[in-house]
Here is the input.
Amino acid sequence: MRKLLLLILGLLIFFLQIVEETKPVQSNYIVPTFKRFTLSQVLRNKSIVKFVNDSLIRAPFKSAYIDVKWGPLHPRILGLTTEVKEGIFFIQLSRGLSLEETQRVLMHELIHVYQFHYNLLEDLPGGGIRWETKIYSWDLAWKERPWEIHAEALSTKLFKTDSTNLGN
Ligand SMILES: [Zn+2]
Here is the structure.
C-alpha cells in the first residue's frame, strides 16, 4: 500500500482547507507572550498564497487537503508536515517564532506537501524514505537530506515577506 499519491487517473477536485485552531488553551498552559499573531495572519503571506495557487492548485487537479495548526512540537522543530493518508496533509507550526519566520517555515512545509503530492518524496512503510528514485534512511543528517535541500532552495527562491512586497 502506497501512502503517497501516484499520478491519479482522472480529475479530482482539489481543495485547500485551512482550519484555524480556535480552541482555548488549557488553564494549566501558560500562553506564550510571543504569540502575537494568528494562523490567519501567517496564511495571508502573498508568496505563500501564490505558491499554493501556482503549484498546489494546478492542473491536472488532484485532491488534497491541507490542515495547518499550531503544533505541540519539540522546541528544536519549527515545522512538521505529515501525510495523514493519501492526499491529506497536516502541517504543524511552532509557536516560538516571529510572524515572518513562521511564514518562512510554512513555505518550507508546503514545499514538502508539494514533494509528497507530486510523488518526489515518499515515506516508505519499512522506515526509509524515497526521494525521486533513491531510497534514504532517516539517519541521514537534516542538512544532507536532498528533500530538505530542495525545500530550502525553493523556499529561499519563492518566499517573500510581505513587508518586502510593500517595499519597506
Ligand atoms: Zn523540511
User: Anything to note?
Assistant: The helical segments are 39-43, 46-56, 99-117, 146-158, 162-165.
